[in-house]
């Protein structure tokens, strides 16, 4: 038996925009070890869904940004850039475009990157949260092994990143407390 998994993307008015096959799963006759999904398949599936969903979201957002918010004039395209964004379900390489500002308003720069402006951080909050959570419960090395075993992020996290993230979060908390001494 062969199971094909497709993603169907619909616009808000219900029109089908994209149908994309993301995975095929083959199974011989039923055995205890081939019943349902395996971890490796689940990880590949999550990674594929993540990539397709994010690409579609970026494409839709980019399309919405192509006109000036003030006068609706079409903005001129400058060039393309790739943003690397780390998530729980794999590293994303998001293709986004830089546009020239509309001359109708004064701007501090000539061009801008709408997607980069919208996503200033390069690691998702959920991934940061899990890295920090396990990094504070066990060694950084074990945290990397655990997260890589369960999530499709092999080779995408390391002990240095976890340590740096924990320091950044610790610093942020200290700043938010504003030097208030604990009672
Ligand atoms: Zn304008």
Largest sheet: 3 strands, antiparallel
Bound molecules: zinc ion
**Number of helical stretches of at least 4 residues:** 5
Distance between the terminal alpha carbons, to the nearest Å?
A: 64 Å
Q: Which overall shape is indicated by the principal axes computed on the Cα atoms?
A: flat
Structural class comes to alpha+beta
Give the beta-strand count.
5
Q: Tell me the quaternary state.
A: single chain
Low-confidence stretches: none
Radius of gyration: 21 Å
Q: Helical amount among residues, as a percent range?
A: 40-55%
User: Averaging pLDDT over every residue, what do you get?
Assistant: 93
The helix/strand series, from N terminus to C terminus, equals EEHEEEHHHH
How large is the share of residues in beta strands? 15-25%
- Strand arrangement across the biggest beta sheet: 3-4-5
List the helices and strands and how they pair.
Layout: E1 2-10, E2 16-26, H1 39-64, E3 77-87, E4 90-100, E5 111-112, H2 114-118, H3 125-137, H4 140-150, H5 159-177
Antiparallel strand pairs: 1-2, 3-4, 4-5
The structure holds zinc ion.
